[in-house]
Amino acid sequence: MLPEVSLLRSGLMAVLGAGVLLYGSSTVQAADLPELTIYTENDPPYVTVDEQGQVGGLTKPRLQRFLQSIGYSARDIKVQPWVRAYKEAMSQPNVLIYPIAKTPEREARLTYLYRLYDASVYFYRLSERTDIRVNNLASAKKYRVCAVRGDYRAEYLQSQRFGRIDLAPDSTANLKKFLAGRCDLAILTEIGIHSKLAQLNEKPERVSIAYPLLELDSNLYIAINSSSKPETIKLLKKRAAALD
């Protein structure tokens, strides 16, 4: 056998061997776990779903790392309306959901596994509404606030006893109501509102920050229902911890 052929054959066998090891590792990872259901919603820019059903968005890079570490992929994600996905995650074992922020109510039922994205939340007003003045959380309570049903920001307002919350089924409908003047304030992240404005062909100058909501942890995570078996949660947390 010629030296060049021998070297080529050796290299090919090494690549094939590495592929077998990689495949075997992924198989072991998945076999260590029960069947998991992973839910998300189509919520640009954090989660996007294209015409072929491919899931992307700002949370994708870190989510991909986490899924690979447990032997899953983006093909295993189920895209559902948030209310349905949230209900399943809060009530059924072995159900994961993302992107989701922390609240006391959620932490009572969910175990947070891995941080996917850092975000900050603000109260926004329409730029033309110069009459709106928010100096603190208490002063915001006199205004009607647009929020999304089942969203952590709506839950936060409810926990702080806001009495005038106008709930929408999703973030796009929420912003449309806000732009139409149905509410005085909207509670959104900066990147979230500007992404939605672009989606609706609206200029970013239409809105202004009324108050930064520093009191609220708005980082986004992937979480699992806490009624899942302790060994399952322990393994998922171990895999997540090894990523950072």
From TrEMBL:
Species this chain originates from: Chitinibacter mangrovi
Domain of life of the organism encoding this protein: Bacteria
UniProt protein name: Transporter substrate-binding domain-containing protein
